[in-house]
Amino acid sequence: MRPSNPKRRRRLAILRGRQVSGCAGGRSKALGRTARLTRRRLSPYSSGDGSGGERRAPLQPVRCHGPGHPPHAYRLHRRALRPAHGAHGRGDPPSPRRRGAAHVPPAPRHPRGGELSRLLHPPRRAAPVARLRRPRRARRHERRGRTLMAGPLPSIKESHLAGRWYPADRHALDRIVRELLDAGGAPQPGVVAVVVPHAAYQYSGPTAARGFAAAGAGVRRAVVLGPSHFADFRGAALLPMSGYRTPLGVVPIDAEAAAALARAPLVRPNPAVFMREHALEIQLPLLQGLAPECALVPLLVGALEPGDAVALAPALRSLLGPGTLLVASSDLVHYGRRFDYLPVPPTDARTVAAAVRRLDEGALERIVACDADGFVAWVEETGATICGRHPIEVLLRALPAGARGERLAYTTSLEVTGDYEQSVSYAAVAFALAA
Fold first, then answer.
1. Considering the entire predicted model, what is its pTM?
2. How far, rounded to the nearest angstrom, does the alpha carbon of residue 415 sit from its chain's CA centroid?
């Protein structure tokens, strides 16, 4: 804004290095003390117009260089004026190396700061650090992983489902597990693997208990394969810890078996992907109720490319033997807008239940037949949203020759909630060797 006071306007003109017409040095009464104080700071070069007034060079932008300046940064610099003709023989300024050369002082700051001071002496800012932008979801998981992995790794994985998916009280959880296993039926001979669901106990607990009850109390080691719902990675992830805690106690991890799996292709220790995953932890209380001395080999299966399941199968097959149970934790078809899967419109419960059951029957038929290739082709053909399709494929390819499957139980969340707009299916399948 231009000042309305002529006297103030002249003072600002002198401070900004402008020539004020009609002013003879510091003798003008209109300039007063401001001109006399300012004149001593100005360049000694004459304006050359014969008026005796002194002027300073205008401010010019000069590009900044060096690590302390961001790219394309400029500062305002006042370059020295050339003296009048004949002052130094030619129109060039004196060299600063020449003895007796005149010194040009730096541009003065405004006595009270303000806009002029900020223009003449802009604050220096650190150069921005260039970094590659990654997808928001990937950055979020990376930050969470860095937070979880900061400091020494704990030896025991604490439960994060207690009080949410099952009771946090030891006695209440033990009572529920006992009731589920007692209603699961008698054990079957020769069971080496099972497929069980991983929803909360009020939805899939009875179905999962049927699968574990068929294995019997002779299980000494459980190799549990679960899908990864929250992390994207290829291959399989191991939990490099010594145990997994639930309200019923600590399930020890078989370090020797885990080390053998770590040498297999596509298997890497990755504790961060286990921190929020429910597909594996939900099975542990049932395992503890079935066989309290059972050891655990936890394995989360991520995305698999064609041939990856075949590469993982031999390492898992080598662990099978007396007392070892291979577990694939998986639900079946997820129906509804929430899961972005609507093979039929949600008109009524009977229509939805029939459509979902047809899809589940097609998948179960191939799982019971131990047909890994047929199961993969069925999922690709129908687009069935089976969250544990990769763990199921790995289990089917790791089964020893002669294994036969049997369907033990089947249910859906629709039967519990009555909500036909979204439904999840659960099934239990046991695989046994012929006697």
1. 0.66
2. 36
